[in-house]
Q: What sequence folds into this?
DNA sequence: CACCCGTATCTACTCGAGTCAACAGGCCAG
DNA sequence: CTGGCCTGTTGACTCGAGTAGATACGGGTG
């Protein structure tokens, strides 16, 4: 009875190739190609029907490797991130996968684990696999472009503020984003605002630190205490402890990532202080986690989906000969309760 | 000066092929292959040196598509998850990527977004790309195996309790895990323990519900209220609101995922109740997020890394003809503060 | 000196799909 | 009735790498 509903599957041996379809449909292999790809030559409707039928009955699926070999494109993009289990990169990866899938591209993922050697290895690996482009969220503020250059693959640098000539890059305006967050905190009447700054392998100064400083200067306020630590929950936790212990304890803190803020909240809670009453907090990223912390975090949201789309578009464009460009996206302040708003 | 440190790159046109290397080294293309792959025939040391030199100078990188076509294997694994931005799957993906990379495999990622059609499309896509195996975390408790079967690819079903004959599967003992968590809650003296149960596309009963019920029965306690909602933060949030509003409000709740628990915590905080004082909470997964919620969550930890390794090993084994098997991993209770422990 | 054998290398075919030049057949104009 | 043209179809070559089978070479033995 089952055999009546499902077409007889040619279980025989090995995968079905174009040749099998051609034989079954009584046509040449070229026609099968024309039908599958809708060109470049036209096929008579009756013939097309026969071929479609054969494809369905035999369960034919074109071999992507052969296709990639002939066309010189694997319809695949590579994404290298420091750590996919970081919610921000997870969100970003999802957006990239969506954007890539919409254009028929698959996504190969690589984690560099904050390790430069691993980042390089990943890139080389992707290059050997003939990916059509790679999206790189480097562990460095300023990535070493040499590997990318020698690999001769279209690429997009993510989260880069600096313009790297000859490369596509996508980033957000970190300084402006930090500024609106700090200004919002100032608007709540805070005069001593600390900074929990994330650190990176390279020593370059991050735009968020600049934005924090600018906002304070413009308001004529003194700089609050700064603590440098990792862009992680534990990093934020220790940063929080140190900030709370500092001689002039701030009444508000700007954290440079949501994860840091989450860790920071824990430190504040453990110290028995109320948020935002005794300690206001604002952070950066706009991840889903920030909405469900307690209290919910006021955070600077990055337009992740738009950035992912732009990154994929740049890659696809590059394979068509478009020239690289540098795009900076604006951020928006997402006001919740950790800052003091009701 | 730069040209002194880096070898003269044959920038000419197009990528370098085996033929170019052969010509440059003055040997045949076969020898180049033998050198690159270390076999299947031996090459004289002097010749090998010449070839290695040519490879370095020309920057030769074997074309993975051609290799995949000839060998029928792309050294690539596919991973299909409902949503990579779910911290649990993000963590899992990272572990899978690590395990795959260690064996020289690349990982292609696909999100199904809780959508069965998209899940199928992803699988078909991976099949066409000649991946050597796919890891599937289905949106269904009981996945439809048909797509996998017709695709004829080694596969591993993730998070499956049920044994699907002819398929590899990897899961945790959901019932046992839930039971230890609920037993722990009972140990704190709770007699009315609610359940925030996650739902799935299929209607099958989840082991966690079974475990919760078993623990209560064994202790001679009545069943607390159950609320069904999505396995997400918003899902946990609404579940929390409904549980708090139920006629016999529980004094403790077991949530079937960390994300639900996070949402639930928010609902409890908003209601002005203290955790664990007025409402104790325990959950399932053991994600990093659970450690930094307020209060930190007592949660049932899944051995993610071990499961990922086993899954990848099963796939690689399958391509060597090993027969499929079903593995269930044990969970461990990670005690923190949300249950009432100090 | 002819013969055999082992080693090193090369030639040529293969994988599956894309596509172009060549070709068959039908139709209409002259 | 023939020539030309348009439509549909086909055979054959190509992409780059793996490798079996053929071949060249050198050294030792009878």
A:
């Amino acid at each position: 009875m089952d055999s009546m509903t499902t077409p007889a599957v040619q279980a025989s041996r090995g995968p079905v190739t174009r040749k099998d379809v051609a034989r079954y449909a009584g046509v040449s292999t070229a026609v099968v190609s024309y039908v599958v790809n809708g060109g470049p030559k036209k096929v008579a409707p009756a013939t097309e029907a026969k071929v479609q039928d054969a494809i369905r009955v035999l369960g034919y699926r074109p071999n992507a490797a052969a296709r990639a070999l002939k066309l010189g494109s694997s319809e695949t993009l590579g994404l290298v991130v420091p750590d996919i289990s970081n919610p921000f990169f997870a969100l970003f990866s999802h957006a990239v996968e969506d954007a890539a899938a919409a254009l028929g591209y698959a996504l190969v993922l690589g984690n560099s684990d904050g390790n430069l050697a691993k980042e390089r290895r990943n890139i080389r690996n992707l290059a050997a696999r003939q990916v059509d482009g790679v999206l790189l969220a480097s562990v460095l503020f300023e990535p070493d472009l040499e590997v990318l250059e020698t690999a001769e693959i279209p690429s997009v640098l993510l989260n880069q503020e600096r313009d790297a000539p000859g490369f596509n890059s996508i980033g957000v305006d970190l300084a402006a984003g930090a500024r609106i967050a700090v200004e919002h905190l100032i608007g709540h009447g805070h005069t001593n605002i600390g900074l929990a700054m994330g650190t990176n392998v390279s020593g370059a100064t991050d735009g968020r630190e600049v934005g924090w400083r600018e906002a304070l200067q413009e308001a004529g306020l003194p700089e609050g205490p700064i603590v440098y630590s990792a862009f992680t929950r534990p990093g934020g936790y220790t940063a929080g402890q140190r900030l709370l212990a500092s001689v002039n304890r701030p009444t508000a803190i700007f954290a440079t990532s949501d994860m840091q803020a989450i860790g920071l909240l824990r430190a504040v809670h453990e110290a028995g202080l109320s948020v935002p009453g005794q300690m206001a907090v604002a952070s950066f990223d706009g991840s889903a986690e920030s909405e469900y912390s307690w209290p919910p975090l006021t955070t600077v949201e990055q337009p992740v989906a738009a950035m992912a789309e732009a990154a994929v578009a740049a890659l696809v464009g590059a394979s068509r000969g478009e020239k690289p460009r540098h795009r900076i996206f604006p951020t928006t302040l997402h006001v919740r309760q950790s800052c003091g708003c009701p």
